[in-house]
Amino acid sequence: MLLVIDVGNTHITLGVFKEKELVGTFRLTTRQNRTSDEYGIFMCDLLKYQGIPKEEIEDVIISSVVPDVMHSLTSSVIKYFHVKPLNVGPGCKTGIRITAVNPKEVGADRIVDAVAAYEIYGGPVLVLDFGTATTYDLITEDGSFAAGITSPGIEISAKALWQDAAKLPKIAIQKPESILAKETISSMQAGLVYGYIGQVEYIVKKVKEESGIEDLKVVATGGLGKLIADETESIDVYDAQLTLEGLRIIYEKTRKSRG
């Protein structure tokens, strides 16, 4: 079995694949002060809870945008699973050509999502990932990573409201019954959710307009993405497991290239 690990700014998401079948998923909060033993015990306990013996994990691949956790996390994989993990980066085969001015600035998470969207849904495709930040990445028909847009995530926007405005309360991020809010909480929810729907629709429209690609497929993933995807026709597909699938695909491509 293959253990795939996606380290984001807020959460660490793990998945276990048996061949191409995703047989288990787990999440941890991203904390930079965990030891290798803490990571190892957490992962082993989560696997055991889902009935997956850790001895059946034959290999591990990691994608990370948080460098400070990598030493402990990598050490935990080596100690508890007895394999050296493959880290997404130089040397990995992705099938995606990065055309950015500085390719090293493109985060591993964005490359993983791009690989999955292109391999599963084909190109051209626009990949939206609703994480700590919300990213929009354009992959052309020939598999080139052509452009990327980054905006504050929904939760960042929400926190800015209640942290920087003294009289505004912390709220659940959900769609209110109407945009015509009559009290504080629903007015904040309306601004956040409908405002974000508007952002998505406008950015997708402008990407299609400036790229000249009208038949662009739009695929979304991540956190609160389903909340937005359910409310707009600008998103064609919501795929909650896109990143985990991308890690599996990169692992298979890299393993194959190395014989």
Secondary-structure map:
Blueprint: E1 2-7, E2 11-18, E3 21-29, H1 36-49, E4 59-64, H2 70-81, E5 86-87, E6 97-98, H3 108-121, E7 125-130, E8 133-139, E9 144-152, H4 154-164, H5 184-211, E10 217-221, H6 225-229, E11 237-238, H7 242-257
Parallel strand pairs: 1-4, 4-5, 6-9, 7-10, 10-11
Antiparallel strand pairs: 1-2, 2-3, 7-8, 8-9
Helix pairs in contact: 1-2, 3-7, 4-5
Terminal residue distance: 18 Å
Determine the fraction of residues in helical runs and give it as a percent range: 25-40%
CATH C-level class of the largest domain = Alpha Beta
CATH superfamily of the largest domain: ATPase, nucleotide binding domain
Order of helices and strands: EEEHEHEEHEEEHHEHEH
Count the strands? 11
Describe this structure in words.
The strands form 2 sheets. This protein has a 6-stranded mixed sheet, with helices on both faces. It has a 5-stranded mixed sheet with strand order 3-2-1-4-5, sandwiched between helices. The chain has helices at residues 36-49, 70-81, 108-121, 154-164, 184-211, 225-229, 242-257; strands at residues 2-7, 11-18, 21-29, 59-64, 86-87, 97-98, 125-130, 133-139, 144-152, 217-221, 237-238. The chain has 2 domains: 2-87, ATPase, nucleotide binding domain (Nucleotidyltransferase, domain 5); 122-243, ATPase, nucleotide binding domain (Nucleotidyltransferase, domain 5, 2-Layer Sandwich), CATH 3.30.420.40. The longest helix is centred in the C-terminal third of the chain and has 28 residues, at 184-211. It is α/β, with parallel strands linked by helices and 259 residues long. Helices cover 39% and strands 24% of the residues. It contains 7 helices and 11 strands.
